[in-house]
Please model this.
Amino acid sequence: MKKPFVVLVLQFAVLYVMAQGKNNQIDSKNQKQGAWIENVPELRGEPGYSWEGVYKNNRKEGVWKKYTTSGSIIAEEMYKNNVLNGPAKYYFNDGKLMSRGNFVATDIDGQKDTIRVLDPATNEEREVEIVRQGNPVMHGEWRVFDEETGKYSTQYYEYGELRDAPVDTSAAKAAKPQGNALPHEQKSSLPKKKKQ
Model:
């Protein structure tokens, strides 16, 4: 009777190992692809944790979940193009919801721009390529647990800045300045030329 049990346990072990083999895949271009599990050890007094999510061309995409080393969930975050962008939830160690809200990415991680730089020693002008890093900011309504009162409070953010009143996201998008856009990326107010 013990023999079928041992066979069953071995089958489950083989299936588990096979399932694990589909995680953490690197393609021919040495880029992370598909389901991924990352374990981060304890460092300088900070507790260790693990991440689970999906990579697409070496960039985090979709929902990523963060767990303590004991398996309790710490966070659920939405990534787009390797930057926090979308709903997020954060939890206390006991699993109780600490806060939830949304992030908006103000820059795309890895976006490249070319700028002209004047060399102060030679006065020569040259073009330099810079690579932007993604910058997520809180936006919209956030529900946050207040440990003193034992209740949730609501906070409102407009592109990272705390506000007193709810954020009207449609008006905020329309009123958002285009200061981050380069001149050739801004919309022109001139009438379009007619085709002849």
Q: What stands out?
A: The first strand starts at residue 25 and ends at 26. The longest helix spans residues 2-21.
